[in-house]
Design a protein that fits this description.
There is one protein chain. By secondary structure, the protein is α/β, with parallel strands linked by helices. It has one domain. The protein contains 12 helices and 10 strands. Strand 9 and strand 10 form a beta hairpin. Helix 1 packs across helix 4 and helix 2 crosses helix 4.
Amino acid sequence: METIILRKDHCPELRIPAPFDPMVKALLTFLLWLVGILPLFMVRGLGVFIGFIFGSVIRHHRADAFQALELSIPELSAAERRKTVNTMYRLQGIHFVEFIWYSMKGLDEVNRAVEIEGREHADEAFKRGKGVIALTAHIGCFELMPMATAAQGYKLSTIVKKIKNEAVNEVIEKLRSHKGLTFLASRNAYRDCLKALRRNEAVGMIIDQNMTRQQGIFSDFFGRPACTSPGLAYMAAQSQAPVVPVFIYRKPDGTFRLKIQPMLEPPADRSDEAVFAATQQYNDIIEAAVREAPEQWIWMHRRWNTKPLEGLEIKRRQKKRVR
């Protein structure tokens, strides 16, 4: 079986002048090497520091995180929101360096760190012979999911967007390379995914990122319209492959739980009504998964940044009144 993760690459676009490429590459290579030789408890300490810098010093999208959390889970007190946001930044830093550490160590370490729950649901879905579409989100150390799947003996192909800076891209590609993992160009991603499904393989899609109006459709997420990619619903309808929700959570002891949920039936067709209904179902499942561990989701991401046209008109009228 093969798993393909179809997603937008969330790495920032680095604008580094070409003459500095060798220096940047050397610095990144040294950082990866350093993380790779450190014991895990020291790596986690480094992650805590990185999370503190981004969350409390640079304050990267910190206001966005507070606003999103307040609007999404209003029952939380101000103190609970502050604790959730601070924990989120700390875990983001830890997960970033842990991903590097596990990448350097290999799949055996990943296998020991990840507990699989609900594998029978995936096995049941594969019995249909139409492949499996894995619905997932940016919860926990989501970058470990491809490695965790490969550690279970699956051949893994991941579709990623190439980072524009060549020096950074070369280092990241090396970091992502493992036995059993293959990376495919994003240009023909949809077609490659359909081919994989026809071979009764697995395709994974992350759909909890904001889309433009040209890319997505509006579907409720935490009670507010969120522009969401309909790609998963279209692919499920076209292939008639079952959809299996899969999420990874960090446990209190620092290990991980890969939770596989019962399969969902694909939409009957690619009509607007069927695609909208399926996309709403997927968002509801992701929302429930986030509520299970809200501190492990990316609240700083501007998930609701794209507004419905009606909402934009209201916003413009409000601005005019303020003026």
